Amino acid sequence: MNAESDLRQYATQTAYRARRASRQLACATGEQKNRWLRRSAELLRTRGQEILDANARDLEKAPEFGLTSAAIDRLRLTDNRLASIAAALEQIAMLPDPVGETIDSHVRPNGLVVSRIRVPLGVIFFIYESRPNVTVDAAALCVKSGNAVILRGGKEAFHSNRALHTVLTDALGDVGLPADAVQFVETTDRAAVGHFLKLNGLIDVTIPRGGRSLIERVTAEATMPVIKHFDGICHVYVDRAADPQMAERIVINSKCQRPGVCNAAECLLVHQEIAERFLPQIAAALQDQGVELRCCKRALPLVPGGKPATEADFRTEFLDLILSVKVVDDLEDAIHHINEFGSHHTDAIVTSDLRAARQFTTAVDSSAVHVNASTRFNDGGEFGLGAEIGISTDKFHARGPCGLRELTSYKFVVYGDGHVRT
Amino acid sequence: MNAESDLRQYATQTAYRARRASRQLACATGEQKNRWLRRSAELLRTRGQEILDANARDLEKAPEFGLTSAAIDRLRLTDNRLASIAAALEQIAMLPDPVGETIDSHVRPNGLVVSRIRVPLGVIFFIYESRPNVTVDAAALCVKSGNAVILRGGKEAFHSNRALHTVLTDALGDVGLPADAVQFVETTDRAAVGHFLKLNGLIDVTIPRGGRSLIERVTAEATMPVIKHFDGICHVYVDRAADPQMAERIVINSKCQRPGVCNAAECLLVHQEIAERFLPQIAAALQDQGVELRCCKRALPLVPGGKPATEADFRTEFLDLILSVKVVDDLEDAIHHINEFGSHHTDAIVTSDLRAARQFTTAVDSSAVHVNASTRFNDGGEFGLGAEIGISTDKFHARGPCGLRELTSYKFVVYGDGHVRT
User: Checking phi first, is residue A390 left (phi over 0); if not, alpha (psi -120 to 50) or beta?
Assistant: First the structure.
């Protein structure tokens, strides 16, 4: 399958089958979908060797793809990792079914009952570069929310993903759900993705999960809506009315607990009135953790060992033990900086002043705005969504962590008794 | 302003101003926004002559644009029409403010309070071809939901729209809201739209309201999300268990009450078991109203004066006194036909069978699914949304009538007490 026309036909047929399966899934009961989740978990346990063998083939090829040893470790499956993947399926089975939920309902003066009922989106095209467990997580979230999914994983994990997909579709057959509810793109040809992205009549939404270049390519080419996850340039603002011990704890946690992820802090803002006292203290604590500090002109004299920051530093997602530092005039200045230089992902204020907290949460235009809590909490699990397929940096449709509910739409269901309009 | 570079600069500066105004609007209180709505209504009443004079200039030019007399009538403003426009503003002032609403909130086991709070989308680019009253309605809905709006009206109503816009911005100044909250594209050059559609960093959503070609152009060119309103190919399915009198009333109302609008029925489906009895009765009633009937092979012998339907007829939005008619095997066949031939807009079943109603509302994939009620009810006003900026045929973000709530997003607001992640 290499010629463009073959790829186009393959994409179209795959999407047609997904569309047909999605109609059946939309009417499936929660119990049926949960049976599939539990049956998949069972098969992952009993057929582990089959998956580990496939994984071994990927690991063998890893050096060809130039994977680092860290990347190879992420690619590797073990009995323990398979057990966690299976356990995650059982946890998703325990979440409430979002489909069919009455979002709101009211009786109109003429007696019509108008309700908004939660329904699946339809067909989801999921493109990912990540570890093989994402194959299972994504399929589970999509099917539980009543959607058919087309999975397109990275070439490095091709055999592992295919083996996991086989188990998932076998389980679909076992519980009487359509096998086409979860399809796997059987070619690693990059051109295939382009054909899927043209099918806006058949695919309802595309979700890319990976690096910036993947997301930019998908956004540029897609003819259907895309749920995007761009940079996390997250801030902690330490207000004049902050408890300095609490501020230190939150800054250290936001920056250092896991510096390579999107909800780690990249910039510290400090109110000018407390800068002289607070900055030397927090700078020493951060430097103890190995953090390099890039400081604005006002901050620099207060940070021994600090480096001068460029404007570009304030627009950079370091994903590393580097933090930009800026002294701000006041709360308004902090809000303005965050809205102009940040990426609308996660931003925190540390303050004991209620008015400042209210103003910060109202005016900062980010997917999550935290008061006296680390930026690291912006996460589907921490927010109680149960599981997430990604974190949206869009405002349209879904924002922040995307769980089951964010993979749904709604319809108006209207009951009358012969009502006509006059 | 004609050179491409001038248009590009104009679009960018307009969008920048809108972005800045949107930040202020996001923090405006409901009372401020309502004062603007009431002040605008007042100015529309006291400065009516200014608007009627501008309207007269458009009416004078109407023959040049080749407008039909019906279109000229829609373009015409009168004292009465201005009074209704003003009254609509006062009604929107009475609706609850969607901004700041707590959508849901819960306390996590660690004590974090995680809430989803409704926030504006930001900047809306609204492109419309319709009557001048839409200028005022759209501005009112956007600003009440906390969004800045850039209005791009049709050339036929340019002077009327500009005069209305002047009144709206004067009122913004009177109540202390930023004048850039409502901007009006001061050129009728078609190329200007293309430049706005490239500004996905500044404009959050584009809403086109007009014919199919406008919507297709906008969808193809836009780099930001679009709320679309495509065809309404709406069905009434008369089930085996339908009350024939009720069915007749609903079919007649769905087709004839206002045949030129999107929620009028275009296709009648009848269960085979009742076709022989019901079809001659409803056919006569429809023909009495001047409706032309285009029938499938099984329906044709039961409809004296009916014409044979082509497959294309079942995919056509007639917007006229024409109805396609098809006899279906059963409920499943009706659902299948609607999902494959319809446009996912509005579809109704007439039945007294609870199981049939449940199955129809679950399986029909449309923005509104009606049981024993005319398709004509799919409308923001009839559904109790207060007012609507359009009806979305998308599933993503908003579906069906779009009122104030559908012009919003949300953010997560998280309150902790020094919480860090471990």
Answer: left
CB neighbour burial string for B98-107, b if at least 16 within 10 angstroms, e if fewer: bbeeeeeeee
Nearest-by-CA chain B residue for A352? B417
Q: For A69, how many CA atoms within 13 A lie in the half-sphere containing its CB?
A: 0
Closest CA to A37 of A407, A404, A367: A404
Phi then psi dihedrals of residue A255, to 5 deg: -85, -45
Q: Are B26 and B177 in contact (CB under 8 A)?
A: no
Classified as helix, coil or strand, A348 is strand
* Alpha-carbon torsion, ordered B375, B381, B383, B389, to 10 deg: 90
pLDDT tens digits for A167-203? 999 999 999 999 999 999 999 888 999 999 999 989 9
Q: What is the DSSP string of A80-112?
A: HHHHHHHHHHHHHHHSPP-TT-EEEEEE-TTS-
The whole-angstrom separation of Cα A4 and Cα B182 is 47
Chain B residues within an 8 Å CB radius of A26: 362-363, 365
Half-sphere exposure of B262 (CA within 13 A, CB side): 22
Hey, are the CB atoms on B411 and A400 less than 8 Å from each other? yes
Q: Show the CA angle centred on residue A407, arms to residues B398 and A112, nearest 5°.
A: 45
Hey, what amino acid is at A145?
S
Residue A302 has pLDDT above 70, yes or no: yes
Which of B363, B396, B412 is the closest to A383 by Cβ?
B412
- From chain A, the residues in CB contact with B102 under 8 A are none
Measure CB to CB from residue A121 to each of B253, B395, B401 and give the nearest one.
B395
Answer whether A368 sits within 8 Å of B412, measured CB to CB.
Answer: yes
- Across the A/B interface, how many CB contacts are shorter than 8 Å? 209
CA distances (Å), origin B118, targets A386, B47, B115, B121: 21, 35, 10, 9
Of B246, B365, B396, the CB nearest to A397: B396
ipTM for the assembly: 0.93
Q: Helix count (H) and strand count (E) of chain A?
A: 13, 16
Q: Where are the beta strands (DSSP E) in A257-377?
A: 265-271, 292-295, 307-308, 322-328, 346-350, 368-373
Q: Copy the structure tokens of residue B308.
A: 């044979």
- Residue pair A275/A331 in contact by the 8 Å Cβ criterion: no
Is residue A164 within 8 A of residue A170, CB to CB? The reply is no
Residue with tokens 């769905």: B254
Q: What angle do CA A304, A305, A311 make, to 5 degrees?
A: 105
Q: Chain-wide mean pLDDT for chain B?
A: 95
Q: Which two tokens stand for residue B209?
A: 């309201």
The answer to whether the CB of A20 falls within 8 A of the CB of A150 is no
Q: What is the pTM of this model?
A: 0.93
Residues B346, A309: Cα–Cα separation, whole Å: 57
Q: So what's the pLDDT on residue B2?
A: 64
Is the pLDDT at A1 greater than 60? The verdict is no
Spell out the domains of chain B, with CATH numbers in brackets: 4-228+401-414 (3.40.605.10), 234-377 (3.40.309.10)
The rounded distance, in Å, linking the Cα atoms of A108 and A148 is 35
pLDDT digits (tens, 9 = 90+) for B350-407: 999 999 999 999 999 999 999 999 999 999 989 988 888 988 988 999 999 999 999 9
The answer to whether the beta carbons of residues B298 and B272 sit under 8 Å apart is: yes
Residue B80 is which amino acid? Answer: N
* Confidence category of residue A253, pLDDT binned at 50, 70, 90: very high
A399: nearest CB among B249, B411, B417: B411
Chain A residues with CB-CB distance to B367 below 8 A: 411-412
∠ CA B153-B157-B160, nearest 5°, is 105
